[in-house]
Specification:
Shape: globular
Distance between the termini: 50 Å
Largest sheet: 10 strands, mixed
Structural class: alpha/beta
Length: 254
């Protein structure tokens, strides 16, 4: 018998900070048996999630009070785990977690299904960090990466997200399907007019840092070249996932 698979995601004020959360949810609906989304905010994010027509979608409301009660980078794993715990309660053995600024390549859907039939507790996935353009990826040494390119997101539902929610905590993750499970990280190529305020919010209001990256003050509109330039980038290795193509076109800068 095929093993049950739930998709999990959380989003708060996704419209204000230009997350591709609607595309991410649609992506999960394409290959998961059920999708659990924890959502909230004061920018109609919750309404947008509720407007997605599917009887395979469960939406858990995040109130402003609940959001404000959590502090530090662990805030991100707390709300991720709200969705994962609910998926476990529904009886699903496996879950695939996407963050709200990510999209999975459709070629990976079948690989995920093959992976969970092998029965491991968790699986490493490849994450492609886009920069400057939706059609360019970062190509820098490990010590210069702004976030990981190997992440654990496909796991049994008994495991939980940790730290800043980049990974699910599994003692030993299977690497076999890693290159076949490809997540595109769109977070660095959102609208540049929004990027500065998004970073400041994340660094100060979520992570609780004393101050934000002062490079942001060098330009009114986010300038990606202040962090990485042409020598740090290369074209993506395949066409973008189909569900993100229109979103990407609207965020391409000449």
């Amino acid at each position: 018998m095929a093993k049950g698979l739930a998709g999990t995601l959380f989003i708060f004020n996704g419209n204000r900070y230009d997350y591709c959360f609607k595309e991410a949810i649609q992506c999960l609906l394409e290959f998961c048996d059920h999708v659990v989304v924890a959502a909230g905010g004061d920018d109609r994010t919750l309404n947008d999630v509720l407007s997605i027509a599917s009887d395979r979608l469960t939406v858990i409301k995040i109130s402003q009070e609940t959001w404000d009660a959590e502090h530090g980078k662990e805030k991100l794993n707390y709300f991720t785990n709200v969705a994962i715990q609910h998926a476990e309660g529904l009886g699903y053995e496996y879950q695939f977690n996407l963050q709200a600024d990510e999209i999975l390549h459709e070629k990976s859907y079948a690989e995920i299904r093959k992976a969970i039939e092998s029965g491991a507790d968790g699986y490493l996935c490849k994450r492609i960090n886009l920069w400057q353009s939706p059609y360019l990826q970062l190509d820098v040494p490990q010590e210069r990466k702004p976030c990981s390119t190997e992440i654990i997101r496909l796991t049994k539902t008994k495991y939980r997200s940790v730290d800043d929610a980049e990974n699910i905590a599994v003692p030993l993750a299977d690497r076999y399907y890693e290159n076949g499970i490809r997540i595109y990280h769109m977070g660095f190529v959102r609208k540049r007019e929004v990027m500065k305020v998004k970073i400041i919010n994340m660094q100060c209001n979520v992570f609780g840092m004393a101050d934000y990256d002062k490079k942001l003050n060098e330009s009114d509109i986010f300038n990606p070249n202040l962090w990485f330039d042409g020598d740090d980038l290369k074209p993506i290795d395949e066409p973008l996932p189909k569900l993100i193509k229109n979103w990407a076109k609207e965020r391409y800068y000449e």
